[in-house]
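Interim report to the steering committee. The following record documents the input for Carboxylic ester hydrolase (309 residues).
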Amino acid sequence: MFSQVSLRVLAVAIALLSQECVAQFPFGGIPPPLRTVTNWGDNPSNLQMQVYKPRNVAKSPAVIFALHFCFGSGAIYNAFTKYSSLADKHGFIVVYPSSLDETGCWDVASKASLTRNGGGDSTGLANMVKFVISEYNADPAEIFVTGSSSGCMMTNVMISLYPDLFAAATCYSGVPAGCLAGSPSSSPISSDPACANGDIIKTGEQWAQIVYNMDPGYNGRRPKFATLHGTADNVVSIKDLGEQIKQWSTVFGINKTSEHPNTPQKGYTQLIYGDGTQFVAYSADGVGHTVPVNENLDLEWFGIINSAA
Ligand SMILES: *[C@@H]1O[C@H](CO)[C@@H](O)[C@H](O)[C@H]1NC(C)=O
């Protein structure tokens, strides 16, 4: 039935798949189970809240909000990332929320979700932040957000709407805050493709104005932000990294000061803005959708581990 060649192709495919699994579940097969939390607050868009709270949780723990990609869920993102296992080691809490919308995407398009306390997904997520602070005695100065693809788009939105709630953010393969505003949906299937195609081009000032308008009058410090994108991404264009860079370097009022090739790994270029403490971007050469999550980079950026660790 099978030729030698196709058997070999099959064997290689299985080997690659299992390598993929090893890469995704490096701490022994099955990710730690999440606990579903109910009654966490006003939930206007029917989100689900799942939490990983380690046994040895810190007295006043840091919290990482980890936002899934489209067609994903908190449970899938828990399997895709190592934050829960790392929480066992470092005593922080992980929140893996889920959009229960049919596409499993975060709403980064509707007026409700792009308005502070506007009654969309962003409002539900902000209410989860308030809940973890009151319910788990989380440190309000150590609330972090990250995500992949749709989760990265939502990260850009959350730090724009609620700069007061988050200390820092990282994210993988997304778009600037407001890029999908007015699109009929946030799903790759039914949204206006212009944003994902990298065809929404604005000046830094225009992008920054969108952020300012999302929390009018906000004058405090803003969450520090590191954003990563692959140059070979054919789902969300690498041009959207350039647009995010314009947006956030303008908001922070800083310019590019240096470029570091092969940082943190071969083929990635780290682009430092200002003194490198507020905004950093990474362009991953030849990497597609999405850039693999680098939890170590996230924890360093959040200050949960130090760079020497
Ligand atoms: C950034 O670069 C622009 C254009 O060269 C310049 O006008 C601006 O003053 C610079 N900003 C800072 C903070 O260096």
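The domain at 4-302 is CATH 3.40.50.1820 (Rossmann fold). The committee is asked to note this result when reviewing the revised timeline.
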